[in-house]
């Protein structure tokens, strides 16, 4: 079963929180740079997933089919509907 958008967003938030709390030892300076870059990528992915979820729902509410939306996402319409069509507890948006 595919992961839901909410599960992906929750996981991204959890990872971002872990990176924010991470404090490398002074001997880990090189590793800290790569971890900081990774942290930024996790935050960017989280932001992108949130924006994508909103835009997919807006497109569907505007009358675009799940098939068309799925084509843009690189997946089937059914997969797009399953991932983005359910009610998102955080945004209080409903699917149509």
Describe the overall structure.
Residues 77-96 are annotated as: Disordered. This protein has one domain (5-84). 69% of the residues lie in helices and 0% in strands. The chain is built from four helices and no strands. The chain has helices at residues 5-21, 29-61, 66-73, 77-84. Helix 1 packs antiparallel against helix 2 and helix 3 packs across helix 4. The protein is elongated. It starts with a helix and ends in a 12-residue tail after the last helix. Mean pLDDT is 81; it is low at 88-96.
The tally of strands reads: 0
Order of helices and strands: HHHH
Mean pLDDT: 81
Helix content range of the residues, please?
A: 55-70%
Major sheet attributes? none
Number of helices: 4
**Binned strand content:** under 5%
Q: Tell me the span between the first and last alpha carbons.
A: 22 Å
What class, by secondary structure content? mainly alpha
* Global Rg: 17 Å
The tally of structural domains comes to: 1
Question: Segments where pLDDT lies below 50 for 5+ residues?
Answer: 88-96
The assembly state of the depicted protein chains is: single chain
**Envelope shape:** elongated
């Amino acid at each position: 079963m595919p992961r839901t958008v909410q599960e992906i967003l929750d996981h991204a938030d959890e990872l971002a929180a872990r990176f924010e709390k991470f404090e490398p030892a002074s001997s880990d300076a090189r590793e800290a740079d790569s971890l900081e870059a990774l942290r930024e990528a996790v935050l960017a992915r989280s932001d992108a997933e949130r924006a994508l979820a909103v835009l997919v729902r807006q497109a569907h509410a505007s009358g675009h089919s799940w098939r068309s939306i799925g084509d843009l996402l690189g997946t089937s319409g059914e997969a797009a509907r399953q991932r983005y069509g359910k009610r998102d507890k955080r945004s209080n948006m409903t699917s149509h």
